[in-house]
Amino acid sequence: MPKKSPNPVKSLKIPLFILLSSKLCAFISPKLATLYAARLFTTPIKHKVPKRELDMDTASTQKTIHIPAIDKNITVYEYGKSEKKALLVHGWSGRGTQLFKIADALIEKGYAVVSFDAPAHGKSKGNSTIMSEFIESILEIEKLYGTFEIAIGHSLGGMSVLNSVKSGLNIKKAVVIGSGDKVQDILDDFIFKLGLKPEISIHLRDYFENKYEVKMDAFSAYKAAAKTEIPVLVIHDKDDPEVPVKAGIHIHKHLKIGSLFLTEGLGHRKVLGNQSVIKKIIEFIQYND
C-alpha cells in the first residue's frame, strides 16, 4: 500500500463569490436557491489541458461523434492500436486525457485505449450536463467502436461505468476509482459545501426528479453494483476529500464479484497516477486473462 503523504490532502475550494451568491439566493427564497444550486450542480468547470497530458492529447486520434439519445456531440480520443480495447471515463470537470498514465500502462500491455470528453467537458461543446449523458455517451461509443475488454472510470466516471453495465455495456471487467455512491449523499455534500440549509438538498433532488422524470437514487452506484455480474475492482483513497472512502467500501460491499484496494495520502486525483494503483489495475486486468 502506498505510504501516506506528509502533506494533507486538500479539497477543491468553492469560489467566494459562488458562496455569497448561494446565500443571497437562499435569503430571497428557497426556490431561487434551489434553481441556482441546480445550475451550479450541472455546470462543470473546463480546465486547460495540463502539460503532463499533452503527450496523449498529441498522440491520440481525435474525432467528434454524435450521441443521438441526447442530441449532443462529444470529442473521442483513440490512443494506440490493438484488437483489445479499453474504455476510460473521466470524472466531473475532467478530460479524456486525465487518465493518461493508466492509458500508457494499458498500451504497454497490448490494449488500445478509447476515452472521451463528456458533454460540456474538455473539447466537447456545451455548458451543462448530467450523469445520464455520461452513460448515453458510453453506450453510443460501444456501438461505434465495438466491444471493450475493460472500462475504467474515475469519480462520476466510475458511477457512470457501473450504471452503463447495468444498462447493457458488454465488458469483461471494470475498475472504478474514487467513485461516488449514493446520489443523495452527493447532493447533501454539494449543498453543505455551498453553505446552504440541508432542506435545499431535498428540494434539489425533487427538482431533478421532476425535470428528468426519474428517481435520482436509481443512479446510485451501489444499486448498479448489486446488478453487476462481472469482476469489478474498487479503488479509493482513505484521505479522499472529495468523495469519502465510505463510498468505495459501500460499493464493494454490494458487488457480486468485487475487489477493494484502499490507498492513503493520494486524495481524489493523485490516485490516478500512482504506480501502485496502476500496477494493481494491470494485475486485476491480467488475472485469468
From TrEMBL:
Pfam family membership, one: Abhydrolase_4
Organism superkingdom: Bacteria
SUPFAM superfamilies: alpha/beta-Hydrolases
Residue span, AB hydrolase-1 domain: 87-204
Keyword Hydrolase set for record: yes
InterPro entries, alphabetized: AB_hydrolase_1, AB_hydrolase_fold, Pept_S33_TAP-like_C
GO molecular function term, any single one: hydrolase activity
Record domain Peptidase S33 tripeptidyl aminopeptidase-like C-terminal: where: 223-286
Keywords per UniProt: Hydrolase
Protein name (Swiss-Prot/TrEMBL): Alpha/beta hydrolase
Organism: Flavobacterium calami
